[in-house]
Structures are given as C-alpha cells and as structure tokens.
C-alpha cells in the first residue's frame, strides 16, 4: 500500500509519459467514462475533489460512482494529460467529473448544477 503510493508519486512526478503510457491511459480513462454512470478523476489531497465526492455520496451515488485518485495511480499523470487532450485543452484541473459520458466539469460546476436543481435529474 505505502510502496504503491511511493511508486505512483515518483512515477507521476519524475516520469514523462511515453506513447505506450499515453495509450494505456487513454484506454483506462475512456473505459472509466463509458462503463460508469459517474466517473470522478480526483487527487487524494485535493479539497475540491473531496467536496465533489462528498456531494455525490450525499446524493446516494456511491454505487454508481467510479473514482480514481490520479496521484495514487501509476498512470495518473498520463491520464490527466489524456483528460485534457480529449477536450482540446492543454491541461485540466481535478476533479474532472463525468455523468453518463458527458463532462460536467469540476467541483464548481457540480455545485452550480446542484444549486440550480439540475444535478438530481441528471443522476435520476
Ligand atoms: N474550479 C475548480 C478548481 C480545481 C482545482 O484548482 N484543483 C487543483 C487541485 S486542489 C488542481 O487541479 N491543481 C492542478 C493539479 O493538481 O494538477 C473546481 O471547482 O474543481
């Protein structure tokens, strides 16, 4: 557990993703988005991510939500790069939240949808 965390930390900090890393990351990200009602690309230390995950949990979405902590995953850095590439951006922040394959945005966008009463219908 601790070794895995140290390995992913070193990998994400010092390792520039190869094309093989990027191909694997793409497959993982696209699979996660397609196979889960709610997909959350998160980092374990990120307060915005914690808030978004808490909100989804309060809305009863634990069973339908797949979360990956990019800072605790060997391909996390490559996955974050792919998340940017797939929306034509040079970089993205975390969390990146997808519902039914559609990008919702980050925590601010999730909260805005919730405040407008538009989140629950998406999750129904
Ligand atoms: N407005 C965004 C802010 C998210 C944000 O600033 N996240 C930080 C982590 S707490 C981030 O992604 N920093 C760059 C990174 O970790 O790559 C939201 O509400 O989700």
TrEMBL record:
CDD domains: GRX_GRXh_1_2_like. Residues 38-104 form the Glutaredoxin domain. SUPFAM superfamilies: Thioredoxin-like. GO terms for cellular component: cytoplasm. GO terms for biological process: cellular response to oxidative stress. Coiled coil: none annotated. Keywords: Disulfide bond, Redox-active center. GO terms for molecular function: glutathione disulfide oxidoreductase activity. The keyword Disulfide bond applies. It holds the Pfam family Glutaredoxin. InterPro entries: GLR_AS, Glutaredoxin, Glutaredoxin_subgr, Thioredoxin-like_sf. PANTHER family: GLUTAREDOXIN 2, GLUTAREDOXIN-1-RELATED. This is Thioredoxin-like protein. It comes from Leucosporidium creatinivorum. The lineage of its organism: Eukaryota, Fungi, Dikarya, Basidiomycota, Pucciniomycotina.
């Amino acid at each position: 557990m601790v070794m895995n965390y140290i390995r992913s930390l070193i990998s994400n900090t010092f390792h520039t993703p190869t094309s093989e890393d990027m191909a694997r990351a793409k497959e993982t990200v696209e699979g996660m988005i397609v196979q889960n009602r709610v997909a959350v690309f998160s980092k374990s230390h990120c307060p915005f991510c914690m808030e978004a995950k808490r909100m989804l949990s309060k809305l009863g979405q634990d069973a339908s939500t797949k979360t990956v902590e990019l800072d605790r995953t060997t391909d996390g850095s490559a996955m974050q790069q792919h998340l940017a590439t797939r929306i034509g951006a040079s970089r993205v922040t975390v969390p990146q939240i997808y519902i039914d394959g559609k990008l919702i945005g980050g925590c601010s966008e999730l909260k805005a949808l919730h405040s407008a009463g538009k989140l629950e219908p998406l999750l129904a």
